[in-house]
Amino acid sequence: MSDDDCCHESFITETSAEMRVAYILQVILNSAVSLLLLRAVRSRRERHVPAHPNFKILIANAAVATWTFTTFSALTSSILLFNSFRATPENCATLMSRSTCLLLRIPGSFPIPMFTSVHMMLFIERCVAFLMKSSYEKQMKIMGVTFTVIAWTFCFPFEFIMIGKVDPKEKVAHCVLSAKDAVPFYVLFLEITTLVDIGTTLGDLLLRCRARRSVRKTREIANFENYTLSKAYQRNENLRLMTMMVPISTVFAGGHFVFVYTALRIRSWLPVYARFRLGDDPSPEALGRLGIAVSELNMSVFLLLLFTVTRMYILMGEKLMNEKQATTNRPNHAVTFSLFEDQMNSHLMAKRRESRPISVPNMGKV
Question: What is the rounded distance in angstroms from the CA atom of residue 271 to the CA atom of residue 267?
């Protein structure tokens, strides 16, 4: 395709109503998520979330990945929208080189694998906490840092594979990260991450059931002999966190499935909309342009999902803090612990007396 033809193709694609609506929605939604995160970080000193350092580190990684993705994506969409409005058939304002396109897309797309990775790592972290109840609070603090290094390191090969072959001098009619040769990998990535998200959600549900059963057993009198405050605290923390995490992982997995299913099925649904938008017999080129615009519109589904999940995480932190504050402010909690300890000691002493063998005295000969 010559430069003139590419310029004309880019102008028609980027100035369509669907494309402009897609860019406007992306700017609004990306900015909303970014500002929501900044507001949460700004007010972090006003609350102390009672959770293990590993859990906090992984949540912080999710926040950094989300903020990076939404902030740079909002900037990219703003530039593309600005070019769309100032473009004319003659000035080729929407046409750009492949290298310029990558400079716009790479910063925002780099943390994409973190969205699924963080939920999977949170599940693994809670599994380890469940299995190592007595020692987890004082040990294993390096796990969060290790997971962080592994997850962000994985983003580098993902980015290179997603980009595909690069010709810096190539002119692109529409700026996307992946070249045509990398599209099959992108489709595979969407399918795998969706399955991982669904599997993580099922794992969270199972772990929550196990944690609830463990807490019930701890409260039984028969288990008082093996009772320790560290184990009880870890069991209660697992149940509390998993009760809050299950809705979040369920919403994310469900929203991700809808986004991926729609993205993969757009081509089969496109002719129906094309007949309404372009007439009864649209050309293949017109169908291609419309497909690109609808794909950009579909990104709004994922951005709405990010906004919802981010808000749920913030509410989870506030709820944890409120529960901690209510426990701290509860009157006579020291006396309550003392009475509980006396009750347990009395129970253990009674059990020892019951289990002590009864000796029959030797009466001797009469």
Answer: 8
Helix ranges (DSSP H) in the chain: 3-14, 17-42, 53-86, 98-109, 112-131, 142-163, 183-218, 229-278, 284-328, 333-355
Give the total residue count for the chain: 366
Looking at CATH, the fold of the domain delimited by 3-319 is given as: Rhopdopsin 7-helix transmembrane proteins (1.20.1070)
Q: Each residue of 152-203: pLDDT tens digit?
A: 999 999 999 999 888 888 899 999 999 888 999 999 999 999 999 999 999 9
Q: Which of 2-16, 204-218, 326-340 has the lowest mean pLDDT?
A: 326-340
Measure Cα distances from 262 to 11, 161, 258, 273, 352 in Å.
26, 23, 6, 14, 65
Q: What is the pTM of this model?
A: 0.83
275 near 267, Cβ under 8 Å? no
**Cα distances (angstroms) measured from residue 213 to each of 25, 75, 220, 239:** 45, 48, 11, 9
- As a three-state string, the secondary structure of 162-226 is HHCCCCCCCEECCCCCCCHHHHHHHHHHHHHHHHHHHHHHHHHHHHHHHHHHHHHHHCCHHHHHH
Report whether 129 contacts 56 (CB < 8 A).
no
